[in-house]
Design brief:
Largest sheet: none
Oligomer: single chain
Subcellular location: Cytoplasmic vesicle, Clathrin-coated vesicle membrane; Endoplasmic reticulum membrane; Membrane
Keywords: Cytoplasmic vesicle, Endoplasmic reticulum, Membrane, Receptor, Transmembrane, Transmembrane helix
Pfam families: TB2_DP1_HVA22
InterPro entries: TB2_DP1_HVA22
Helix content: over 70%
Shape: elongated
Structural class: mainly alpha
Number of helices: 7
Order of helices and strands: HHHHHHH
Membrane topology: Multi-pass membrane protein
């Protein structure tokens, strides 16, 4: 438990949008930022468990901060942070695809959105326990390396067919526009 408390304290000492907002609230209210952060996390958790629109809130949590961090990573000179966030987006995309097919069933389970939000937060956690990094290296990467040549072949074939169809449609559209209209 002390490790969690130390990580929490370390997070509150970092400079980012959330901690700056907590510092401003602390200055205005006189309430310690630890209590403010704990209260906000508790309200967020209760809303995810029982609130209307938990799906939207969960999707915002899974998208807004990672998008912001991704932009910062793109603008930084380091390549490592780019890899971290690209890995997150690969996992997020595959999770979204899996969720698309199972959401109708899963959304009926109690606390589904709280679990989904916990999973997305697990995928964002910085450091060695980053869930996206673990999932990518243990599941996604081995599958990709095993099947990427077959997938590349299918994509190349579909791309060629799509190009042929687009050329045919364009040719037909041009022919219909350039043909003189017959008067009745």
């Amino acid at each position: 438990m002390d490790g969690l408390r130390q990580r929490f304290e370390h997070f509150l000492e970092q400079r980012n949008l959330a901690t700056e907002a907590l510092r401003a609230l602390e200055a205005k209210t006189g309430v310690d930022k630890r209590y403010l952060a704990t209260g906000a996390a508790t309200l967020l958790s209760l809303y995810l468990l029982f609130g209307f629109g938990a799906s939207l809130l969960c999707n915002v949590i899974g998208f807004v901060y990672p998008a912001y961090a991704s932009i910062k990573a793109i603008e930084s000179p380091s390549k490592e942070d780019d890899t971290v966030w690209l890995t997150y987006w690969v996992v997020y995309g595959l999770f979204g695809l899996a969720e698309f097919f199972s959401d109708l069933l899963l959304s009926w389970f109690p606390f589904y959105y709280a679990g989904k939000c916990a999973f997305l937060l697990f995928c964002m956690v910085p450091g060695p326990w980053n869930g996206a990094h673990m999932l990518y290296h243990r599941a996604i990467r081995p599958l990709f390396l095993k099947h990427h040549e077959a997938v590349d072949s299918v994509v190349r074939d579909l791309g060629g067919r799509a190009l042929d169809v687009a050329v045919g449609i364009t040719r037909d559209a041009q022919a219909s526009v350039t043909q003189p209209q017959k008067d009745k």
